[in-house]
Specification:
Bound molecules: coenzyme A
CATH class: Alpha Beta
Number of helices: 6
CATH architecture: 3-Layer(aba) Sandwich
Structural class: alpha/beta
Number of domains: 1
Strand content: 15-25%
CATH topology: Rossmann fold
CATH superfamily: HUPs
Largest sheet: 5 strands, parallel
Shape: globular
């Protein structure tokens, strides 16, 4: 049984993340999309909001579950019995950071292996901060995120207050 985890902050989830999730689901028997927090980043959505957002997009993928975890990734792996971490690589700039994380996680928990999937070329420019930046000015984010989550993102920026597009 190949049990894998796809961890990330997914704030918000993008079409690039979804592409990785759907491809990983065909490779592994079970995949957990794990909503986590990167302590260096401010959050737009709470962990529960992000879990609900992603779950709603994956109803048709039977071997994928969505969960959240506030601690160390290796501890989740130990508890859940998963020993594969999936990460997407967009460009070479991702590589150094990802290599460091993969080595650190492996040192902390020997059975864990990190598997990298190349992000689809069409999404290699994309990141959650690009989505947040566009959305914060009321920009069009329909080529970045699934249609169904756009209202939630727009609503959040309405609450926070949109920035002035024309300066
Ligand atoms: N499509 C679109 N965007 C993608 C992408 C893809 N396929 N793959 C990565 N990205 C983007 C994300 O949108 C994100 O963009 P942002 O920086 O603008 O928010 C960026 O790449 C990296 O995000 P993510 O994959 O979510 O990683 P992260 O650096 O935010 O967080 C964790 C990584 C949460 C897995 C890591 O910090 C962690 O494991 N934390 C838990 C504590 C822990 O165990 N620490 C030790 C780790 S060694």
């Amino acid at each position: 049984m190949k049990k894998a985890i796809y961890p990330g902050s997914f704030d918000p989830v993008t079409l690039g993340h979804l592409d990785i999730i759907k491809r990983a689901a065909t490779i592994f028997d079970e995949l957990t999309v794990l909503v986590m927090d990167n302590s260096q980043k401010c959050k737009l959505f709470s962990a529960d909001e992000r879990v609900n957002m992603i779950s709603g997009l994956l109803c048709d993928v039977s071997n994928v579950q969505v969960s959240s975890w506030a601690g160390l990734l290796v501890d989740y792996a130990k508890e859940s019995g998963a020993n594969i971490i999936v990460r997407g690589l967009r460009t070479t700039t991702d590589f150094e950071y990802e290599l460091q994380m993969a080595h650190t996680n492996h040192l902390e928990y020997d059975p864990i292996e990190t598997v990298f999937l190349t992000t689809a070329l069409s999404y290699s420019y994309l990141s959650s901060s690009v989505v947040r930046e566009f959305a914060s000015y009321g920009g069009d984010i329909s080529s970045f995120v699934p249609e169904s989550i756009i209202p939630m993102i727009k609503e959040r920026y309405k609450e926070i207050g949109l920035k002035d597009r024309k300066g």
